[in-house]
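Colleagues,

Please find the record for the two-part complex below.
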Amino acid sequence: MDYILCDENAIYYECGYSSDNALFIRCGSEAFFITDGRYSIEAQESIRGAEVVTAADLVAAARLLLKKNKIKKIAFDPKEWNVMDFEKLSAKSSLYFREIPDFSKKKRIIKNDEELLIIAKAVKLGKKAFKSLAKEIRQNGFGKDEYALTYLAKSILSDFGRYDLSFDPIVAIDSDAAKPHALPTDKRLKNGDLLLVDAGLKYKRYCSDRTRTVFAGKDFNFNTKQQFRSKKIQKAYDTVLRAHDHAIAKARSGMKARQVDALTRDIIEKEGFGKFFVHSTGHGVGLDIHEMPVISSRSDTIIEDGMVYTIEPGIYIPGEFGIRIEDMVAMIDGKAMVL
Amino acid sequence: MDYILCDENAIYYECGYSSDNALFIRCGSEAFFITDGRYSIEAQESIRGAEVVTAADLVAAARLLLKKNKIKKIAFDPKEWNVMDFEKLSAKSSLYFREIPDFSKKKRIIKNDEELLIIAKAVKLGKKAFKSLAKEIRQNGFGKDEYALTYLAKSILSDFGRYDLSFDPIVAIDSDAAKPHALPTDKRLKNGDLLLVDAGLKYKRYCSDRTRTVFAGKDFNFNTKQQFRSKKIQKAYDTVLRAHDHAIAKARSGMKARQVDALTRDIIEKEGFGKFFVHSTGHGVGLDIHEMPVISSRSDTIIEDGMVYTIEPGIYIPGEFGIRIEDMVAMIDGKAMVL
């Protein structure tokens, strides 16, 4: 099927290059990468398998190309396009624009070996960065507030500017960790606090994603073996860890995504924390930090070999604390391999 | 006129709070802020003058509110909405959705005194950060590559995580500065290089934006008085600086934006650099880094008191060097005041 893309990562996936102002059309055996003058030289040097078209008005250029190539029907993702650009593209056109939500993400749901290797490397770099971050916090982090700790996480995850980040890291202390998408505050880290860190980096444009929740004693680390002073916290922590480990051990290709979700949710519900697990078990990861499959209680997606996603159960007690443990897995030979 | 917004900054402007998942409806004297459970407590604490509505499906909740309030006609910005959400909002509805591109940006084009004070503070912090950055580069920056220097700029502009950045800083050496939107490379800074830095930070969500191009000798600073070894560079630099100063001195409320653009462009063209000034003279700045007015050769917008925009002429000689000097101005009592 012929299609037109405007999302930067969707385009990168097609031709190994992209820019923040580009369109991509595939029609039959031909492909066109449309961008403006700022990027045309780089594009010509980098792209194989697509003709580079330089234009000031990308949408107008796309219309012309669709017409010249006598396209009758073309797929697009209605989540990618804004109303104005799409109206400009489609106004008074005799083309049939077929809406396919998540068109590119659906194509990208199974990772090939090259992608798996790149993602594995991103995860490895992320893991190493967590280790460095723990060391830095042990030495200089106590007394610092969440802003400063977040900055520290950004610095170390990016290897001081070498890598892009998958997203702004979350660094949350005690009750701040009860908000799954906590923004930093001026709360300062004290010896013995609960500390949640959720962070990832990009390697060759592919994302990593990891969360650890720890008892921040003087000699803490980001391993999953953690000892808290509070019995309530320990119970929640052990439950989350058990749910996390269980899902990784039992996830199989051929299951529905909601069955994988149930692997964590059932354990958390049985321990009475069900209503405090307020999000899905996980999400696909690739060029975008949120890809398919969605590992939620409502998803009928069949899990297949080559899929990469997070397992990240959590328990959030408002005003008290939050626990989340997250790793990325790849489905290999029918099982979930921790990356 | 009643309207519905989905852009985060557009919503913040209406009610002093926003989140990355929110809709805002104003109908007559009533207003509604729709968000999901993660943000509803914060929203209720922060918002005055709008009712907070919590919903899992924001668009469905908006449809219901529009119906309940018997709205007949509502304005929206077709650049804000993606095709899918807008279709969901408007499908089988008897409402008339009036498209107004840049609806919120048009409302925000004139800044009030409170906004002007906040922006002035953002600019002041940015200026101070440039000074600290110069000091840091003088002491430790020579020999570092553009990645490391960009990281340094991020660190210092954000005051080590205290402030958000207006955008990823641009730090470009010599011929890399010839790309107006240069991405960092592994080119290292040597004594005597040309160095371009374009960076800004956010204070209370409002952006600053500044560019300096300097001769990076051992004791350089980011003042506009610069002495280059190359006569060609010096001529280009002096031309850009003259264009910059001239526009600031001569811009008046009541002019058209394209007349302000001509104040820089005419000087650059007269010196024979016209075809190397490849962008507009400037852009409005506020909650977004790119707001209205657009100071371009095609803009008929009338400049008015209270507008805030950049003056940033440039000359870019491909493969050789690039010069840009940028300051923000506010129109006060008919004239452009440098912030």
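The domain at 113-338 of chain B is CATH 3.90.230.10 (Creatine Amidinohydrolase).

Comments are welcome before we finalize the supplementary table.
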